[in-house]
């Protein structure tokens, strides 16, 4: 085998390894709240968020806040930050994983961030 063939083989193996790494990392990147318990997040949302959102933004369930044209939340990190802000303002005493469950619920049903 010539030196050029060895280099070509190494390049091919490197490309295969890189492609495999990217391929297997894509599913994890597909859902920013993959660890969220969607059902629990929905229950927490209904209990803790809906009444305030109905009062401030209208709609039968307060969901107008999520679908309005001028919404503040335009990324997964903005959604997490907004949940933390609401938790703090309303003194809800939620754990970060509770906020993640709510974020997962909201993302699945309204935002659909990847």
Automatic annotation (TrEMBL):
A single GO molecular function term of this UniProt record: heme binding
Matches recorded under InterPro entries: Cyt_c-like_dom_sf
Superkingdom, natural source: Bacteria
Name of the protein: Cytochrome c domain-containing protein
Organism expressing this protein natively: Parazoarcus communis
